[in-house]
Amino acid sequence: MDAGEVSEFFKHKSVLVTGSTGFIAKLFVEKILRIQPQVKKIYLLIRAPDNASVNDRMQKEVFEKETFRVLREKHGGEFDSFISNKVTPIAGDVSVEKFGIKDMNLIQEMQNEIHIFVHSAATTRFNERYEVALDINVQGTKNVLEFTRKCPNLHMLVHLSTAYVSSMKENIITEEPFSMENPLKEHVTLDISQEIKIANDRLRELRSKNVDNRTERDAMRELGVERAKVFGWANTYVFTKAMGEMLLIDQKGDIPTVILRPTMVTSTYKDPFPGWIEEAKTIDAVTVSFAKGELKVFPNDPSGIVDVNHGRIQDLHETMLWNVSMGWATPEEAFEDFLNGLQGPFGWAV
């Protein structure tokens, strides 16, 4: 299937995207609007207290960003009208049942309209408070599943995960699902409901002691890392993302699903234009510090490979589009790992 066929698939289709204020989902929204202006509707679920706030946040954190420069130039003075016709912001929170939306008519409209659901919302802080990470990365995935079950025209659920759910594994990492019966460490069984109970019990205990906010925050962060290491994961982020995958595979039933697992994400390679990046995160902080001359020494193995998605962000979005248009659905076909170490190795020695 070529790019034209992928573009044609999205004609007159409706898409719901979570996490659109984030880097990857924002680029995905831009690409859909650019390659297929006849997309029917894109719903953006954005955390906000009300409709006025959600529209303001969408404008500031999505469409006013430089990544929409090409699309803005294409439509000129009609850009705002085009966005208004094609994109509907929805105030909601994935960690809450029905995303916290009270308007049942709106929920029914969305469920009847949606053909593709792209779930990109997540907390990516490595040492996030355990109960917060569970709410967003695990319970949020469950809420997405419950919502998509009631979408009669759904073609595909695309779930954005991370390659680091594989944690400390070495050598060849296979594209296969995790299960609660087989976490990374052998001879242990993971029970997601029990993890939620552990987090809630600890939070109640801390609050019963009237500890200050900082003490509570630090204790819940420490609990997340502690529980992650019990089962073989390095931090709370990758642990809860792995649990989100487990829940998804266990409960998705016949919902057509694709799970995408990118490694570290850097700037765009050429689409919509080269070099766009938003904030300096993960490996970007090292690069920026080196470029400014602030980082004088960085001990490392010169022969080591840094697995970053610099040129493959475009590949990631194209694969998202291609998987949706092809309608992949079975668990054996539901995984795409985006690792650049073999295709385009980038070494520490520069």
UniProtKB/TrEMBL annotation:
It is an enzyme of class 1 (oxidoreductase). The keyword Transmembrane does not apply. The keyword Lipid biosynthesis applies. Its EC number is 1.2.1.84. Residues 17-308 form the Thioester reductase (TE) domain. InterPro entries: FAR, FAR_NAD-bd, NAD(P)-bd_dom_sf. It holds the Pfam family NAD_binding_4. SUPFAM superfamilies: NAD(P)-binding Rossmann-fold domains (SSF51735). GO terms for molecular function: alcohol-forming long-chain fatty acyl-CoA reductase activity; alcohol-forming very long-chain fatty acyl-CoA reductase activity. One of its GO terms (biological process) is long-chain fatty-acyl-CoA metabolic process. Keywords: Lipid biosynthesis, Lipid metabolism, NADP, Oxidoreductase. It catalyses: a long-chain fatty acyl-CoA + 2 NADPH + 2 H(+) = a long-chain primary fatty alcohol + 2 NADP(+) + CoA. Signal peptide: none annotated. Catalyzes the reduction of fatty acyl-CoA to fatty alcohols. Belongs to the fatty acyl-CoA reductase family. This is Fatty acyl-CoA reductase. It comes from Acorus calamus (Sweet flag).
